[in-house]
Amino acid sequence: MTSNSLPADADPRQLLADTRGLARQVRHDQRLTWVALLVLAGLTLVAIPIDWFTMKVDCLPPISLPKGQMMECTFDRRAYLWFWPPALLLAYAAIAYFYLRAARARGIGARVRPYVVTGAVLTGLFLAAGIAIRVYLATHDAPEGPLPGWFLLLDRTLAPWGIMGLALLVLARIERNVALLAFTVGYLIVALVPVNFGWAYHSPDPRLEFLPQQVINGIVLLLGSIGFFLAGRRRAASAPLDEQPVR
Amino acid sequence: MTDSAHPVNGLDDVVHQRVRLGILTIAHEARKVEFGYLRDHLELTAGNLSKHVDVLETAGLVEVEKGYEGRRGRTWISLTDSGRAALTAEIGRLKQLIARVETNGAGGG
Fold this sequence. Notes:
Chain B: This is Transcriptional regulator. Chain B: It holds the Pfam family HTH_34. Chain A: Keywords: Membrane, Transmembrane, Transmembrane helix. Chain A is mainly alpha-helical. Chain A has one domain. Chain A is 69% helix and 4% strand. Chain A has a two-stranded antiparallel ribbon with strand order 1-2. The longest helix of chain A is centred in the C-terminal third of the chain and has 32 residues. Chain A is elongated and about 80 Å long. Helix content of chain B is 57%, strand content 17%. In chain B, a hairpin with a 2-residue loop joins strand 2 and strand 3. Chain B starts with 17 loop residues before the first helix and ends with a helix. The interface between A and B is medium-sized, with 29 and 35 residues.
């Protein structure tokens, strides 16, 4: 690289393209997307038995029901109050730690703070919503009949997997990571539009209504982590060929 | 149009230099950057890079922080507010130059 001043007739397009190339390189070096997704996937999968065994389920006596009729059950995902909020905060703290450590080892700063702050704020909202609905149900009867679609969508959005996805959108924005944005949109569709092949209606235990979706969310996050890891390795392997330094 | 209105006349000699523009760009994106990262990515010798960093530090565009990690000395460079403003201005002028060249080129047919 020359250290001479830019000649008067130098192409400003080339200079601008060089600066953009450097900025893009730094942003790539700051990313640790696969670790973020791996932590979230790990949390989701580890939480499965915790959610299962701590969910309080009260059903009408298990009389034989006519075919196609659902049991009437009430349930309380108690882990939403005491497990998920601290676990999510710990997960975001772990992600921040790994990002900062990796960036520092590479010799640059990290861009993870807005993501972590967003995750923490959404976790607070999730906890507040959980408390609010319990306070409401303590003084009101549970609504009869199916809940409206907008309520179910809001409920899923403020569930752990919804807020994970919303925070990932912020990470994609601050990293200017189009691949992560595309992945997160797909993930949110899976998480917010529940996948149901009939297990919600034919399972003997109401907890089975939630289990498959949680497994699917965890697997999607895990596959995303593997995908970003492999893409990063492939990019690192090909970097000397397609990334020319500024000249 | 007068010469003073031409974007070239607004270019800052300190910033408008490939290496120093590269240092400012990397420091801006990275928030703070270690000397070795700059040396590797700009493909400079340590001495050459030091000279450019000194110029930027003297101009108040970057801050240099020296420290140790274990027994290894590390030098971190970060942008000052002036450096951020200078970089933004330089990028703006480059875009103006490109727009002017393209306009003249289109006009000249």
